[in-house]
Specification:
Blueprint lengths: L8 H13 L8 H20 L7 H12 L3 H8 L2 H8 L7 H11 L3 H4 L5
Helix pairs in contact: 1-2, 4-5
Length: 119
């Protein structure tokens, strides 16, 4: 198969089909090189046509808390008060700049995620 740019949905689907057929190719072989190039082209097409946005800030906080084994009390230690933590998690209080800084520092949540608007 001749490798060409992926410009249309048909090109994209053809590339995915080809990728699947050569998926187990050995690295360094001709098909292995083709697999690597196709992967890059497919990724570029997907980034342009199927962008994935950042997660909702509150969902990101909940997810990170779950990963770290944090309770609402642990979150309260980060943001100041247990009632404040509850209000944040229940979307009754917006994040302040100071809270965003603290959440970024303590929970390592990217600021780009935390500064987004949410309901």
């Amino acid at each position: 198969m001749t490798i060409k740019p992926i410009k249309t949905e048909k090109d994209y689907n053809d590339a995915l089909d080809r990728l699947e057929s050569i998926f187990d190719s050995k690295k360094g072989s001709a098909q292995g090189d083709e697999l690597e190039i196709l992967s890059i082209l497919i990724e570029k097409y997907e980034d342009e046509h199927f962008p994935i946005g950042f997660p909702d800030p509150i969902e990101a906080i909940k997810f990170r808390m779950e990963q770290m084994g944090y309770t609402q009390s642990d979150l309260a230690k980060v943001v100041g008060l247990k009632s404040r933590a509850s209000e944040i998690l229940n979307r009754k209080r917006k994040l302040t700049l100071e809270m965003i800084r603290l959440l970024h520092d303590k929970l390592k949540i990217p600021t780009e995620v935390l500064v987004q608007a949410y309901n």
